[in-house]
Amino acid sequence: MIDVDLPSSAAELDWARAVERLLYLFPTVIGVGVVGALREADLGVPLLGRGLVLIGTFGYTVLSLGLAGALFLDARRVRRQPLASGEWRPNPWLNAGFALLWAPLAGVVYLVRRHRRFGTPPGQSGWWLAVAVSLAATVIGLIAAGIAVVLAFPASLLTVVGFAGAVAFGAFPVAIHRDAAYVCTRNDAWRPNPGLYLGLAFLSLSIAPLQPLLAGYYLLRRRESLGTP
């Protein structure tokens, strides 16, 4: 990674951060749609499942359009600064088109490549706590879900457990991305790419055993590098 600052206004710099913030919202929106599609939210409210599907679909569409626009504007600005961007000159139209086809992947790939050239502004040092809480919530949620299935708990209780897990899962990608942005500026021995870990966190949401493994591995490497947790 080469840490180079782009000569531009603060307003222009916000487009890269807008890409991050829009990506943070995808897990929650997708989760709402999945819950509705599986009809797990059986709380006695008519058409609730269909409503959740519509909310998820509409939210995903809006986020995809917003992400496409943010990628286009940031890529165009980077491309107009050849001395700063070096050999990486992202095509605004290709990145925007990719986002319309598969928004989360397009955003992650862009952030990974952007970080290698410009780095990612570090956040606060305490985001690892959210990673640890997400890890604990996932493990507890999996155990609770297993017990609920074995003991044939009511569907409404399973729904509550599912929503609690969705909240924890939604926080995990944000936490690991922000913490990786902090860690990569603190130690040369281990400089995790925040965009890469954001992508792995997204992937872990669809593969249940991967999330605790990824969180545990990350926290272990962080401890070896910085001494915390």
Question: How would you explain this protein's 3D organization?
Answer:
This protein is mainly α and 229 residues long. It has 2 domains: 10-118, no CATH class; 127-226. Helices cover 75% and strands 0% of the residues. The protein has 9 helices and no strands. It has helices at residues 10-37, 48-79, 82-85, 92-101, 103-118, 127-150, 155-183, 194-204, 210-226. Helix 1 (10-37) packs antiparallel against helix 7, helix 2 packs parallel to helix 5 and helix 7 (155-183) packs antiparallel against helix 8 (194-204). It is flat, with a radius of gyration of 19 Å. 34% of the residues are buried. The model is unreliable at 2-12 (pLDDT under 50).
